[in-house]
């Protein structure tokens, strides 16, 4: 008998396909295409995201005005590098790409500009293309008082004088030295740092004052506060002394010596007798003081009072601040203008020697 069992029939390769068996090579091809499509979609998505963010501000929260000089002959790449170095934009390449897209190559103009990291890239481009500076520049020399500073800024139509002085008296500013200041109308005297500034033409009185206080804060580091404390002073008194030095001599090399005279007199409770403090106490500046002026009743009058005046009498420069912190080591108690009439002084440790130097100066006139 024949055994019953299953019978098997061999199929051809074509028949295998018709029976539903997969073709490995075709499956691999489909997978490869799918992977390529995924990468293309990712690339497109990344490109779209990049383009959407291309013109966004470098730092939308940083509204600080940054002075930027674009020299004559600067191309797009150079301008981009300048802006990136100034931290106005995040990338030179982004600046170059958007310039190319917008057709701005060759349109930029040299000049001084005040730009901010909070500005969109296209706004920055428009400002530089226009060539119209949106800034004003002003210089505050060393030795000016707050009133003189306000007069100078008002004359340039940069401020309303009353609004400026109101900000000086009661504006809110966040610096470590603010807590040291007295609650007076000229509380910021000595702290509006003398410098050349570029500001937006739309800057408020508060912003202008803040820019000057920023400069002071930048130039007076922590070590200066430590040094002041070691000397037995706070920064307000150091700036008061620096302002006296600023008014007494224009010769930088003399400043530490003038400082030594001030400290030597303070040490023995000797009146400082500095004319500039009397000038500050008077309603108006006088070309020449008389004896009656020296009797003016004021906490700034160092002829009538011993010790330091009530506060600073002007804005001192960094050389005067350093001199107040690091005075020369001398035995001098007096000085007078030199007979050489070059702005320098003759210093002495006795009154007799002072009179001799004074007579020499008087006879040189």
From TrEMBL:
One of its GO terms (molecular function) is lytic endotransglycosylase activity. Coiled coil: none annotated. It comes from the Bacteria. Belongs to the transglycosylase MltG family. One of its GO terms (biological process) is cell wall organization. The chain crosses the membrane at residues 31-51. It is found in: Cell membrane. Its main location: membrane. HAMAP family: MltG (MF_02065). It is a single-pass membrane protein. This is Endolytic murein transglycosylase. GO terms for cellular component: plasma membrane. The record marks 248 as: Important for catalytic activity. It catalyses: a peptidoglycan chain = a peptidoglycan chain with N-acetyl-1,6-anhydromuramyl-[peptide] at the reducing end + a peptidoglycan chain with N-acetylglucosamine at the non-reducing end. PANTHER family: ENDOLYTIC MUREIN TRANSGLYCOSYLASE. Functions as a peptidoglycan terminase that cleaves nascent peptidoglycan strands endolytically to terminate their elongation.
């Amino acid at each position: 008998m024949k055994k019953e069992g299953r019978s098997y029939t061999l199929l051809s390769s074509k028949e295998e396909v018709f029976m539903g068996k997969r073709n490995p090579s075709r499956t691999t091809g489909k997978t490869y295409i799918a992977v390529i499509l995924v990468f293309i979609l990712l690339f497109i998505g990344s490109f779209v995201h990049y383009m959407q963010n291309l013109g966004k501000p470098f730092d939308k929260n940083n509204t600080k005005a940054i002075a930027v000089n674009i020299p004559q002959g600067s191309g797009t790449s150079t301008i981009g590098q300048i802006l990136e170095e100034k931290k106005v934009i995040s990338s030179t390449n982004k600046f170059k790409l958007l310039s190319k897209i917008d057709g701005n190559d060759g349109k930029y103009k040299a000049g001084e500009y005040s730009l901010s990291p909070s500005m969109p890239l296209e706004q920055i481009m428009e400002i530089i293309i226009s060539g119209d500076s949106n800034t004003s520049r002003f210089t505050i020399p060393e030795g000016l008082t707050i009133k003189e500073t306000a007069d100078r800024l008002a004359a340039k139509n940069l401020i309303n004088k009353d609004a400026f002085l109101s900000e000086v008296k009661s504006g809110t500013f966040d610096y470590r030295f603010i807590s040291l200041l007295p609650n007076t109308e000229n509380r910021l005297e000595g702290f509006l740092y003398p410098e050349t500034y570029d500001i937006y033409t739309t800057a408020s009185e508060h912003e202008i004052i803040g820019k000057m206080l920023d400069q002071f804060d930048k130039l007076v580091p922590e070590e200066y506060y430590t040094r002041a404390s070691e000397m037995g002073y706070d920064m307000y008194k150091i700036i008061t002394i620096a302002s006296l030095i600023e008014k007494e001599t224009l010769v930088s090399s003399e400043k530490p010596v003038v400082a030594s005279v001030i400290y030597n007199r303070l040490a023995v409770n000797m009146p400082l007798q500095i004319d500039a403090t009397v000038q500050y106490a008077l309603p108006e500046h006088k070309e020449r003081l008389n004896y009656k002026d020296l009797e003016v009743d004021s906490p700034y009058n160092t002829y009538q009072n011993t010790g330091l005046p009530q506060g600073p009498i002007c804005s001192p420069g960094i050389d005067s601040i350093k001199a107040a912190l690091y005075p020369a080591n001398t035995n001098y108690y007096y000085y007078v203008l030199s007979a050489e009439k070059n702005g320098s002084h003759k210093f002495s440790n006795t009154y007799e020697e002072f009179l001799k130097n004074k007579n020499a100066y008087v006879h040189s006139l």
